TrEMBL record:
PANTHER family: 40S RIBOSOMAL PROTEIN S29. The keyword Ribonucleoprotein applies. PROSITE patterns: RIBOSOMAL_S14 (PS00527). This is 40S ribosomal protein S29. It comes from Phytophthora kernoviae. GO terms for cellular component: cytosolic small ribosomal subunit. GO terms for biological process: cytoplasmic translation. Its cofactor is Zn(2+). GO terms for molecular function: structural constituent of ribosome; zinc ion binding.
Amino acid sequence: MANLTYSHPRTYGKDSRHCRVCKTTRGLIRKYHLNMCRRCFRERANDIGFVKVNSEDSLQAGGVDWGIG
């Protein structure tokens, strides 16, 4: 019998989208059509043109805000 594992076409849903760099389907950032996982985004954010912005809200929340620079 043929191996039927992962033989159904994935045309919609989470499994149809993957990171354009490492091809993983987990932690995907789809905003602005980035289609990159969060790990690859952190490695390449400065090269793409994103700059860390320290604002009052992000400092109070303890987080970092990414902005396009």
